[in-house]
Amino acid sequence: MSKVFDGVYCPSITITKDDGSIDYEMWGRHLDHLAEAGIDGILIFGSIGEFYAFPLSVKEEAADFAIKRVAGRANVLIGVGGTNPDEVKEFSAYASKAGADAVVAVSPYYFGPSNAAAERYFDLVCESSSIPVILYNFPPRTGTDLSPELVAELAAKHPNIVGIKDTVDTISHTRKMIAAVRKVNPEFSVFSGFDEYYTPNRVAGGNGVICGLTNVEPELFVKMNKAYHDEDYPTMLACAKKINKLMAIYDVADLFVSAIKGGVKAKGLPISTGIREPAVQLTQQQYETIQNLLK
Question: What pTM does this model have?
Fold first, then answer.
């Protein structure tokens, strides 16, 4: 469990055909693009990957595909979140055996769990996974917040919990998270889930971002990350400013998943922008707006 996760990670869209089935040809081309651009890791079945919309059998098949397609060119993380503990346990064990580098576990949603219930849930994940576990905190979607204190307690209890994606729209939360978990594990990885927080995350001592626009502009994020490591701060700041402008893409569609799919299509991959029902699909006018934002 000594691997340190760091840099820019892409929560990949799950590219589907118009009928909702996975389009493995186009998804494979997208995964190739991400790997060739130099992305440090790829997360499948995160929020943008529509983890909530696919049956377990399809997700297991897709995990095998993604791991084989990426073929070691980047870390592959598998999102195992769900509300059925038996399926979460099964998928965590499956991802471990399939060759994933880590599993990513969002806290249970609908009934936003108490700290005690969250601890029981993550106990199940950690016991089912023989590979590192990265927690995923997304309060607007789950209805509960994984506090820095709770995450530190979980990290102390489970050495295989090695990081967290903190999708909270305030850097102070992430800063406090870093301070709390590093007392338990100095190498604990803390990522922001917001694209524009790469720089403040690094300033706070964090490890980078796991964010959606990496699907659309992976080269820009890789350039920014390299500039950070090279201490080329003018270049890093210039990249950050471009990303800040591109954040407007998220607001174009009814759901951000559609917007990101529209961005990938606008960059040249001829994919369906369809997302799994129930959903409001991307309109032609919205797509043209995204095209203009990317010009």
Answer: 0.97
Number of folded domains that form the chain: 1
Q: Mutual orientation of helices 24-37 and 218-229 as an angle, nearest 10°?
A: 20
Q: Domain of 14?
A: 7-217
Beta strand 189-192 pairing with 208-210 = parallel
**Backbone φ/ψ region at 29: left (φ over 0), alpha (ψ -120 to 50), beta:** alpha
Whether residue 130 contacts residue 73, with contact meaning beta carbons closer than 8 Å, is answered with no
Residue 42 has pLDDT above 50, yes or no: yes
Reduced 3-state DSSP string for 45-101: CCCCCCHHHCCHHHHHHHHHHHHHHHCCCCEEEEECCCCCHHHHHHHHHHHHHHCCC
Dihedral angle of Cα 120, 53, 209, 238, to the nearest 10 degrees: -160
For the cut 80, the answer to whether the pLDDT of residue 2 exceeds it is no
CATH number, residue 65: 3.20.20.70
DSSP annotation string for 152-182: HHHHHH-TTEEEEEE--S-HHHHHHHHHHHH
Tell me if 125 is assigned to some domain. Answer: yes
- Contact of 34 with 12, CB cutoff 8 Å: yes
**Mean pLDDT over residues 145-155, rounded?**
97
Q: Is 46 exposed, middle or buried (0-12, 13-18, 19+ CB in 10 A)?
A: buried
Active-site residue list: 47, 110, 136, 165
